[in-house]
Amino acid sequence: MATKEIPKHIGIIMDGNGRWAKKRLLPRVLGHKQGAKALDNLLHSAKGLGVEHITVYAFSTENWKRAEEEVSGIMGILRDYINKYFREYADSDFRVDSVGDLSALSEDLQRDIEALKEASKDKKGIHLTIAMNYGGRDEITRAVKKIAQEVKNGNIDVNDINEDMISQNLDSAGTPDPELIIRTSGEFRTSNFLLWQSAYSEYYITDKLWPDFNIDDFKDAINSYMKRDRRFGGRNEVVK
Ligand code: IPE
Ligand code: IPE
Ligand code: MG
After folding, report:
1. C-alpha 182 to ligand 2 mean position (Å)
2. Is pLDDT above 80 for 231?
């Protein structure tokens, strides 16, 4: 039995900016710039489809391993993106949000992000979450520390710890798990994206490089999802 419903939450691993630039003999940073434009275009066209939450993977906890020049280029693009597009989104009907450990980012950028989150928290349009300095393992580790501290303080008992409590201590607390995760540029791996939340997510992998990904590709991914048979470990057949 196909799912048939539009996914409410879609996660996107925006991969392939470097390859996009390389194909054109351009510096990698220009690939990231084009990737930011692709995201803005997609978000404008995604309105009205019925998707309520979109989480995009912009920078992983592992991406610091890249050359200093590329890391600072990406940070500059992220800063421009937050200050221009995030501000525009928050001024229209988007609710903007973030996951990841922002403490590694510059203080003024952290302040800007927090202010935009606060200003847009009641907006009814798409809830857009940007994953910055995000790693699923890092997020789970930070959640475990928060819970351990509560146990230590005597506020909860070890036996009170359950899956729901862990979810509520993740950066994504309050957002439903993504039904669909899209990864561009053909890699079949999670690269540490939403590890806990994606336990039963459907994956859609396309060879398209992120800067080339557009609303038609997004709709293809949704259509593919809607044909899937999701079983969550159970059985959908009519039991006789
Ligand atoms: C994704 O593009 C963006 C980030 C990881 C920041 P890549 O830079 O990973 O592009 P490829 O995988 O090298 O093509
Ligand atoms: C995942 O892409 C991270 C982002 C898209 C931000 P990577 O390019 O960093 O992942 P790997 O290195 O191919 O696993
Ligand atoms: Mg990559």
Report:
1. 13
2. yes
